[in-house]
């Protein structure tokens, strides 16, 4: 399996002295193309930190984090920004949509910011996969929570990223909308061969994944495929 994202002995320490926190304590893990992984673990176990470090949103203290063959620690801010924009998609618990833009504009915003021409055919496919073809001119406030999160997933997919990191993407949704978004992530993996890494508290959500990784105290304590 082609490795899309990997960490080797990844350590992240916040603060110093009395406020020193070891958020990640030597994590080694790899995510392959077309793999849907759920990350679970108690609050404070390092789930968000792992995603942020592997996605280049946060610096690492020691060890290595790579997207493909690219070592993130070796990149200056400009290169890191470009790598995130071109190769990584994010979905957060709060949808982080732009309220003044309509759905279509929200989806293409990252491409527009990067000065990239959208691949029309791909966008049409993404938008029909997320089931929002008839909502393109609606603003986020005119969409349900589930639709807003599906829109956020479409935005994450728009640039054809190699990997999507989703941090509790169903955390703010009722169970029906949550199931919709999980089904959509599943479909992105199946139809678009995306790689998805998703943090969740919810065992029912994790059941949608191919693989479940458990963290505790900043370490991988369990890693089960085909669960
Ligand atoms: N910006 C930060 N500054 C200091 N400590 C932090 C910061 N972010 C996270 N932490 C600490 O790192 C640990 C892991 O946090 P986090 O990755 O957010 O856990 P999780 O997502 O599993 O709930 C926690 O002890 C948390 O308090
Ligand atoms: Mg978290």
Describe this structure in words.
By secondary structure, the protein is of the alpha/beta class. The chain has a single domain, classed as P-loop containing nucleotide triphosphate hydrolases (Rossmann fold, 3-Layer(aba) Sandwich). Helices cover 33% and strands 28% of the residues. The chain is built from seven helices and ten strands. It has helices at 47-54, 77-87, 103-113, 120-129, 145-157, 175-192, 203-206, and strands at residues 3-14, 21-32, 36-40, 62-67, 70-71, 88-91, 163-167, 195-199, 211-216, 219-225. It has a six-stranded mixed sheet, sandwiched between helices. Helix 3 (103-113) runs parallel beside helix 5 and helix 5 (145-157) packs parallel to helix 6 (175-192). It is globular, with a radius of gyration of 17 Å. The model has no long low-confidence stretch (mean pLDDT 92). Bound molecules: adenosine-5'-diphosphate (ADP) and magnesium ion. Adenosine-5'-diphosphate (ADP) binds at residues 14-15, 21, 23, 41, 43-49.
Bound compounds: adenosine-5'-diphosphate, magnesium ion
- Could you state the order of secondary-structure elements as H and E? EEEHEEHEHHHEHEHEE
Largest sheet: 6 strands, mixed
Instruction: Please state the average pLDDT score.
Output: 92
Q: Stretches where pLDDT falls below 50 for ≥5 residues?
A: none
Distance between the termini: 18 Å
Taken from the alpha-carbon principal axes, the silhouette is globular
Helix content: 25-40%
CATH class equals Alpha Beta
Whole-number count of domains: 1
Question: What spatial order of strands do you see in the largest sheet?
Answer: 6-7-8-3-9-10
Give the amount of beta strand, in percent: 25-35%
- The counted number of beta strands is 10
CATH topology: Rossmann fold
- Could you say what the CATH architecture is? 3-Layer(aba) Sandwich
């Amino acid at each position: 399996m082609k490795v899309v994202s990997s960490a080797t002995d990844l350590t992240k320490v916040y603060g110093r002295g009395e406020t020193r926190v070891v958020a990640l304590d030597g994590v080694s893990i790899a995510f392959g193309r077309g793999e849907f992984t759920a990350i679970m673990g108690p609050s404070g176990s390092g789930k968000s930190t792992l995603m942020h470090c592997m996605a280049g949103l946060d610096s690492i203290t020691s060890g290595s984090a790579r997207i493909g063959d690219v070592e993130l620690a070796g990149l200056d801010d400009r290169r890191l920004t470009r790598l995130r924009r071109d190769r990584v998609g994010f979905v957060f618990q709060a949808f982080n949509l732009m309220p003044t833009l309509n759905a279509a504009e929200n989806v293409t915003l990252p491409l527009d910011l990067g000065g990239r021409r959208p691949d029309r055919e791909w966008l049409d496919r993404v938008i029909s996969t997320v089931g929002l073809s008839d909502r393109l001119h609606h603003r986020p406030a005119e969409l349900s929570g589930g639709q807003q999160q599906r829109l956020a997933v479409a935005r994450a997919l728009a640039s054809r990223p190699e990997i999507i990191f989703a941090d509790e993407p169903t955390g703010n949704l009722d169970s029906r909308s949550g199931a919709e978004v999980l089904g959509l992530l599943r479909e992105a993996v199946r139809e678009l061969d995306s790689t998805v890494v998703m943090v969740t508290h919810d065992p029912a959500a994790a059941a949608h994944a191919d693989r479940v990784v458990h963290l505790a105290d900043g370490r991988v304590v369990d890693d089960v495929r085909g669960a």
